[in-house]
Specification:
By secondary structure, the protein is mainly α. Helix content is 79%, strand content 0%. It is built from five helices and no strands. The longest helix is centred in the middle third of the chain and has 17 residues. It is globular.
Length: 85
């Protein structure tokens, strides 16, 4: 796993643990240009979750829109999986 992939986990884990500040700092500094579109989109979804934890609604929406612009199919598929039935 390279340093770019490591940034994905360094954002995802703090989000899961409720440390939005750390996730947002790492996400802001991460160079994700070499990652696949799916991984870049996943990072933006996690950044949206971090913004939501801080009640930064506009930033969360912007991150989700960025993720959707990268790979809308993956975002819509993930949204459908997380809906309660």
């Amino acid at each position: 796993m390279g340093p770019d992939n490591g940034a994905l986990y360094e954002v995802a884990v703090p989000v899961e643990l409720g440390d939005a500040g750390h996730a947002l700092r790492v996400g802001a500094a991460a160079d994700i240009s070499s990652l696949s579109s799916e991984r870049r989109a996943r990072l933006h979804v996690n950044l949206a979750r971090a913004h939501a934890q801080r009640r930064q609604v506009d930033e969360a929406v912007a991150a989700l829109l960025e993720a959707e612009s990268i790979t809308s199919e993956q975002i819509h598929n993930q949204a459908g999986k997380s809906r309660p039935r």
